Amino acid sequence: MNDQNQPFDSASEIHDIRRIMERSSRFISLSGLSGIAAGICALAGAYFAYDWIAEYYVNYDQRPGYSGSEFQKLKLNLMVLAAAVLAAALVSALYFTWRRAKQNKVPLWDLSSRKLMWNMLIPLISGGIFILAMLQYNEWRFVAPACLIFYGLALVNGSKYTLSDIRYLGYFEILLGLISTQFLGWGLYFWAAGFGVLHIIYGTMMWWKYERSQ
Fold it and tell me: If both were cysteines, with which of 13, 106, 180, 183 could 190 make a disulfide (CB 3.0 to 4.6 Å apart)?
């Protein structure tokens, strides 16, 4: 009787060991709902940005290109909008991640989450400084591609400390950013697709795969 149950017990023990090792080395409390919320925030921000940019170009012939005060005002408004979208996305991501961590009875801030944060911050901070330098010199055409590429690099770099599925989102973000370098007048659309549509698709898939049963 014991010999018959031994294979089952061994398989169960191996599964438990793998689960414990995964929890200790990877941050597995990322919520798909946080991706959906971030995507909605990005699409809302893209809507307002499109409206402001379109309004600026209505009377573009009577304005001094990209050196006048009107363009500086537009650039400042877009930067504030981007900061607001980022803040809203971060708050929603923290909330849904905290809720899932609480459901799984695991700490939100541990060694794996700290490793995830630092590995994502390195490309994000580097990209942010690079983008600010481009805006300083009015090289705005590559801002959207740079946002997508550096964000994708951050996802790929941090994927080894969380769910491996996030790596594929990073690949798509990088690919979309590279493609957008060849369609410079469509940067806002690519930005909305990468940060909005891809996030919603990814979040929905992650929710369906990992959280639906809960």
Answer: 180
